[in-house]
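Trying the structure run again after the queue cleared.
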Amino acid sequence: MTYIDPAIVNFTDVSKRYTIENLALYKINLEVKKGEFVFLTGPSGSGKSTLLKLLFCAERPTEGEIRVDDMDLSTLSPSQIPALRRKVGVIFQDFKLLEQHSVFDNVALSLEVLGLKKTQVEKRVREIITNVGLIGKIDRKAIQLSGGEQQRVAIARAVVNRPPIILADEPTGNLDRDRTMEVMGLMEELNARGTTIIFATHDEKLFENTHRRVIKLEDGRLVR
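Done. Tokens:
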């Protein structure tokens, strides 16, 4: 008997309309299996960022059902959203770091809001900062780092509480090719440990020779 991994993300007839004229997503049906690494691609304005925002309730669908790790997002109350976001780590293109705070403080914030003990926070933050190759700069302010280093801090912050899902929204869009390959290596390592990754990008070179599944959006519609 063949075992098939269950879907950890499921979209059923999902549409998102901002105005009558602005239909961001239309009738999206999509499954992502647990432990899968998928690329989400399409031109600017195709709906990539909107789709990701729906997955961590930064936006709500106009119609349809979204399930994330057996949570029905259409019925999620505001008080339940923090529980969802403990399951979903998000990496943004523009980093969204606290520039005047240290590398340690930027990463620790994700754990402090969960109420972990100081010793637990210290141990886990140092571990993940070591994994992304920045332990020597743990006390540096974020603004003192290069773009590639800032993106690694953003990755560390997204994964430090060990979420089962990582959403990456154009995380290499502001990086040169060498830094891009560094980030891709980190993402591959996370996936190898079992993390489900949905990686949005318009850079086709990142997946042109991949065995990974590629999901393509055009004008808010799923075309591949």
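The beta strands are 7-17, 23-33, 37-41, 63-68, 71-72, 88-92, 165-169, 196-200, 213-218, 221-222. Worth checking whether this holds up in the mutant runs.
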